[in-house]
């Protein structure tokens, strides 16, 4: 598991020492620094991106809520505090957890684990977005095309034509095989001869599907049920 980077912020020294002790007991935690003065923490966080900040709320000059709101980027946040009146505000700020002192190690560790899991999930989503492409051979050359660039795929007997805004690729492959190979990428069949990415459908009507690119494709009668889950307006 990749380590999650953390800073601790609390104007009370014993609370900071407790955060240090607890973090040192968690193998996947990298505690970068701790601060008793929130204004110093703000200066540090404006220069260094961290995954998670664990902060008190009621602190002089700058409270934990204000500190989080002043940051241009939003690290994950756990409030570690005696205060209970900020719980609603914490919810509005998408705070990972709200720990009310005193906090035992098991409760603290669960909150950090929740933050770590959320961070890994976000990173996996970002990675998937960056790597969403397909590789195929056309005219004896291997091509890489990103999913967002694919307008539609048209089947022509033993061949398919993969259409992008700039180019068409003729591929020796049956439509049924293409659908099977890339079913996890959310392609949807709208006609016996056409498939598109679900995310590229703008609207559909009785006999046609309108794409976000502005193109219109035929809609086969037997494929309408596959579109019923889409919240799209009728175009016919």
Automatic annotation (TrEMBL):
Modified residues (4-aspartylphosphate): 56
Alphabetic keyword roster: DNA-binding, Phosphoprotein
GO MF term (any one): DNA binding
Stretches assigned to coiled coil: none
Record flagged with keyword Transferase: no
UniProt domain Response regulatory: residue ranges: 5-116
Pfam families on file: LytTR, Response_reg
Domain HTH LytTR-type: 134-233
The protein, known as: LytTR family DNA-binding domain-containing protein
Species for this entry: Sphingobacterium oryzagri
């Amino acid at each position: 598991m990749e380590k999650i980077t953390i800073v601790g912020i609390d104007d009370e020294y014993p609370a900071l020492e407790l955060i240090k002790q607890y973090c040192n007991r968690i193998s996947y935690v990298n505690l970068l620094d701790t601060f008793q003065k929130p204004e110093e923490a703000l200066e540090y966080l404006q220069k260094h991106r961290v995954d998670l900040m664990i902060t008190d709320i009621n602190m002089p000059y700058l409270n934990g809520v204000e500190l989080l709101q002043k940051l241009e980027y939003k690290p994950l946040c756990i409030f570690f505090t005696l205060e209970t009146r900020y719980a609603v505000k914490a919810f509005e700020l998408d705070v990972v957890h709200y720990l009310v002192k005193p906090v035992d190690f098991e409760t603290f560790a669960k909150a950090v684990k929740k933050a770590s899991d959320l961070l890994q999930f976000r990173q996996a989503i970002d990675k998937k977005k960056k790597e969403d492409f397909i590789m195929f051979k056309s005219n004896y050359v291997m091509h890489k095309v990103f999913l967002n660039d694919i307008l539609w795929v048209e089947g022509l007997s033993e061949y398919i034509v993969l259409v992008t805004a700039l180019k068409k690729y003729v591929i020796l492959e049956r439509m049924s095989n293409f659908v099977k190979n890339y079913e996890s990428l959310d392609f949807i069949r709208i006609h016996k001869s056409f498939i598109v990415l679900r995310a590229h459908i703008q609207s559909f009507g009785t006999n046609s599907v309108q794409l976000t690119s502005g193109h219109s494709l035929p809609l086969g009668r037997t494929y309408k049920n596959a579109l019923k889950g889409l919240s799209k307006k009728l175009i016919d």
